[in-house]
Design brief:
alpha/beta; 6-stranded parallel β-sheet; 18% strand; 213 residues
Chain lengths: 213, 213, 213, 213
Amino acid sequence: MSSDADIYKHQNFGNPLGLGDKVALLIVDFVNGFDDADQFGGGNVTEACNNTVGLLKACRELNLTIAHTRVVLADDGSDDNIMAIKVPALKNLTENAPGSHIVERLKPLPGEIIVRKRLPSAFFGTDLAPNFTMRRIDTVLVTGCTTSGCVRASAVDAMCHGFRPIVISDCCGDRALGPHEANLFDLRQKYTDIMTRDEVIAELTARQAQAAE
Amino acid sequence: MSSDADIYKHQNFGNPLGLGDKVALLIVDFVNGFDDADQFGGGNVTEACNNTVGLLKACRELNLTIAHTRVVLADDGSDDNIMAIKVPALKNLTENAPGSHIVERLKPLPGEIIVRKRLPSAFFGTDLAPNFTMRRIDTVLVTGCTTSGCVRASAVDAMCHGFRPIVISDCCGDRALGPHEANLFDLRQKYTDIMTRDEVIAELTARQAQAAE
Amino acid sequence: MSSDADIYKHQNFGNPLGLGDKVALLIVDFVNGFDDADQFGGGNVTEACNNTVGLLKACRELNLTIAHTRVVLADDGSDDNIMAIKVPALKNLTENAPGSHIVERLKPLPGEIIVRKRLPSAFFGTDLAPNFTMRRIDTVLVTGCTTSGCVRASAVDAMCHGFRPIVISDCCGDRALGPHEANLFDLRQKYTDIMTRDEVIAELTARQAQAAE
Amino acid sequence: MSSDADIYKHQNFGNPLGLGDKVALLIVDFVNGFDDADQFGGGNVTEACNNTVGLLKACRELNLTIAHTRVVLADDGSDDNIMAIKVPALKNLTENAPGSHIVERLKPLPGEIIVRKRLPSAFFGTDLAPNFTMRRIDTVLVTGCTTSGCVRASAVDAMCHGFRPIVISDCCGDRALGPHEANLFDLRQKYTDIMTRDEVIAELTARQAQAAE
C-alpha cells in the first residue's frame, strides 16, 4: 500500500496523538462466539485474544480503568436492529448464550466495566463515554475483535467523544486478514495511533517508574 | 478478496436490507476542498462527485429529503478536536474558506438540509438523526467522500440510528482506491446495501410509477 | 399559576403537537422501588401506576409498540455515575434487587422493549431512540415516575430525538405533588402535549375504528 | 416547599457534588432575544444576565474554559424540529437575526466555545461534551436562561455526560418566577449543586491562591 500511504502523507494525514495522562483499556467483544471460527471468529482473532491476556495483566498492575464489551440481544427479538438483518446470527448472542460471554482467559474482575451493546461501537447507545469522562480518562487503548468491525467503530467513536484512541495492533483480530490490514491502515491515517502490545506496556511502565521517582 | 468473502458467507453475513418506504439522500462532504487533489481529494473523488449530479437531480424530482454535509471548524480553534491532531489541514476548513463550501454543481436548494460537522459521521454531534426521524425517513442513500472516512462513518451511524443505509458505490469516492474498495467490502458485509446510481434511480422511479397507478 | 401561563401565552408557547401516525407507549421506571414510599415512591406514584394498567391494556389491544424502563446499576459500582452521588440509594437498584424490577401489574410481555438505564432519560445512553426510529414511531405516550425526574427527562429527550411526546398526566406520578404540577406546566408549555388516560384511549380507539372503515 | 424537601431528605436525595479539578463555565442562551421581554425574556432574565458579567470576568481571569450557546435555526426551515411546533417564534432565531446573537455585555472572546443549538440542551446534537472531555473538564458551572428550559436541560445533560454541574442560581433567569424556583428545587435535589455567583467566585479564587502557594 505504499502508494496509498504516499497520498495520505502528501495531504499531511497520520500525525501521532501520543498517550495522554489517564489511560483506559477497552477490550471489545472478546467473547466465546468470536473466539470460535464456526460462529464469528477465525483469522487472527484467537491469536489477538491470547495476546491480550498479557496486556490486561499489565493494565491491572498499573491500576488502569478497564472496560469489556459483550454483544447481547434480547431473547425475544424486542431490540433487534438493522445490523441483525445484515447478520442474523447476532440474534443468537442472548444474555445467557455461551457465545455472548467473555472468554474465560479475559474474565472481568469486580469493578471492571462491562458494557452490553448491540451495535458495532462500544460507545453508541451505551454510557461508556460518560463513565470514562467522569473518570477523566483521556486515552483509550483499543483491543478486541473484529478489527474491521467493532474495533474500528469503537476507535472512531472514542475519538469522536474526545478520547485519544491507541489501537493495539497485535491485540486486535479479524476473521479475514485483508480487512484487518485495510482497517489498521485507515485507523492509523485518520483516527488513532497504532502500537504493539509490547510497545504500549513498555511506555506505560516507563511512565509509572518515572512518576514514582 | 474471494477468500475473505467466503469467510463472511460461511458466517451468513451480507444479507440484503432493501429500500424502505421513505428514502433520503445524504451527500457527505462534496465540498471544494475534497474536490481538489492538493487538499483532501484525488483518486476517484471528482468522478464520484460528477456522478452524484444526476442522482441529486433524480432525487429532487422524486421529492426525496436531501441532506448535505460540510466540514466546518471554528476560525479560532475553539472546537479543534482529536481528529484535527491527526489531520491538521482540517483546521483550514472554516466557515468562509472556499474549501469548506459545497461544490457548485451540487449546490443545495432552499429547504435541503445542510449539516456542519467536525467529525467523520454526519450524525455524530449533529441533529441529523432527529431531523430524519421526525420526517419518518427509514432509508438513507449514502454518497460523498471519502469512502474510507466520512462515508463509512456516516453509513455505519445511519444504521446505528435505525435507518437502512444504501451506499451508492459510484457516487462515493476516495483519494486512494485501495481503501475505497476495502471499505465497500466491509460496508456490504456488515452494515449496508451497495447499489450503483443507475440501479437505485431505476428502483426509485419504478416504485413511484407503481404508486401512481 | 395563571400569571405564569399568561407570560407563556403572550410569547406564543404551548402550541399543540397532536398525535402522529405511529404511536408507542413508554412506561418509565414503574418498578417496585418507586412503588414504595420508603424507597423512591410516595405522593401519587402508586395511583399513577394503577392508572397505567388500563392504558397498557388498551395499547396492547391496539398493537402499539410498548417500551418499559428499569433503573439498573452494576452490583460492583463499576457504572456508578454523578447521579449516584446526588442520590446514593440508586445504587441499591441492581439487576436482581426486587426494587429494580417492574411492578407485577405492569409486567412486560414477550416482545415488549425493556430498557435498562442509569440516568433520568430513557433515551440517554440507550438504544431506545434507534429502536423507535427503525419502527417508524413518530409519537410517544410518556407515563411513569417521577414526573419531575425521569418522566420529564424522557419526554424532553423524546422531543429532541424527533418524536412527538404526549405526557399522560394521570399516568405520571411523583413523590411530591408540587414538583409534579410544576413539571407538567413546563412540559405543556415547551415540549409536549398533555392528555389524560381516557382522552388518549378515546382518540386512539376512534382512529382505529376510522381506519377499519 | 418544606414538605416537599422533607420527602426528598427522607429518601436521601440532594447530596452535594462539590467542585472538581477542572472547571468550565457554560453560558446558555444569553442572546438578545432572551434579554427582551417581548420575545423570549422577562422575569429575572435580564438581572441574571447582568449578574453573569462579573462571573464571566472572574472565570476569564482564572483561565477557565468558557462556552456560550446560541439558538440558531436555518432560514429556510430545513432544520425545524418538534420544539418549533410548540414554540413557533424560535424560527425567528436565524443566524443573522439580532435575536440570536449573544448580548453585547457577554460577547465571546476569541477562543471561547460558541455552540449553535436548536434544542434545549447545550449538549444534545452538538459536540460540546466531546470538547469538554478532550479538555478534561470535570465540573460545569451552568448559567443562562431559562432556568426551566435550556438551563435545566443543559445541567441534566452535563450530569449525564459525566460532568459535575453547578448551577449558579443568581446567574440563571426565567421569564416566570414560579418555574425558576421549581426547577432550582428539582436540580438541587437530583442533579446539581446550587451556588450563588459570589460563593463560586470565592471558592475558585481561594483554590487558585492555595495552588499558587
